[in-house]
Amino acid sequence: MTSADDEHARDAAAPGTGFYGRRKGKPLRALQSQHLAQELPRLQLDLATLGDDLHALFPVPVTSIRLEIGFGGGEHLLAEAARHPGIGFIGAEAFVNGVAKATAGIVEAGLANVRLHGDDVVPLLDRLPAGALEQIDLLYPDPWPKRRHWKRRFVRPDNLDRFARLLAPGGHFRFATDVEDYAAWTLRHLIADARFDWTARVADDWRRPFAGWPGTRYEAKALREGRTPGYYEFRRI
C-alpha cells in the first residue's frame, strides 16, 4: 500500500526527463551514508566528461559493456558483475536508497567492473556512444497500471529508438515483469519494431529466468503474491 505522499511523488515527473517516481525513501543507515559520501564519487559517471571509449571507465580490462536500467537495490547488477568480471557494467537508478545499497555492495564485494549513474537514465542514454552496448536490462520496471499513466512506461517508441542506437548488432535487450499487461505492451512494441527480434521460440523460453538469474526483491514479492514473472529477450538486428 502506498501513502498519499507516495502517490503524489510518483505522479511528479522531473521536467524534460523520462523519470517518474520518488527520489528518496527511508533514512539511510550510517554505513550506507558513509559509502555514499566516500565511495560513490569514484563510481559515479560524469556525463560532462564521458568519452567515446566506455572501456576506459573501468580500472580493469573489459571486453564489452552492459547497462542495467533501474537496478533497485542492485541484487542483479552486482551478481552479474561478480559472475562476469571481464565485462563492464553500468547501473542506472534514480532512487537514492537503491544507489546507496548498490554502492555499499560494490565496495564490500570489491567489484572493479561496475559504474553507477544515480539519476534519470535518459540523459545517460543520449550521451552514450552509438553501438557501445552489448546488452541492456530493464527488470521489473514500474508498470504504471492506470491507462492515463501508460505514457510513463519506459518501453515506448522514443526509448526503443535509444536502445536501437546504443545496442551493437547482435546485442540484446532483456525485459522482466510480473505484470501481464506490461508484458503484452512490451511485446506489441518490440514485435512491431523491425530493428528487434524476439528470441523466444516456445512458451518456456519466456517463462524461465535468464541464465544465471539471481532473483530480485521484486520477483520475490511477485511470487509471494501469486504473480508469475516473465522474462523476455530481444536481439538487435
TrEMBL record:
Cited Pfam families: Methyltransf_4
Class of enzymatic activity (EC top level): transferase
This enzyme's EC code(s): 2.1.1.33
Region Disordered, residue ranges: 1-24
Keywords: Methyltransferase, S-adenosyl-L-methionine, Transferase, tRNA processing
Compositional bias annotation for Basic and acidic residues: 1-11
Catalyzed reaction equations: guanosine(46) in tRNA + S-adenosyl-L-methionine = N(7)-methylguanosine(46) in tRNA + S-adenosyl-L-homocysteine
Homology family: Belongs to the class I-like SAM-binding methyltransferase superfamily. TrmB family.
UniProt name for this protein: tRNA (guanine-N(7)-)-methyltransferase
Organism the protein comes from: Ancylobacter oerskovii
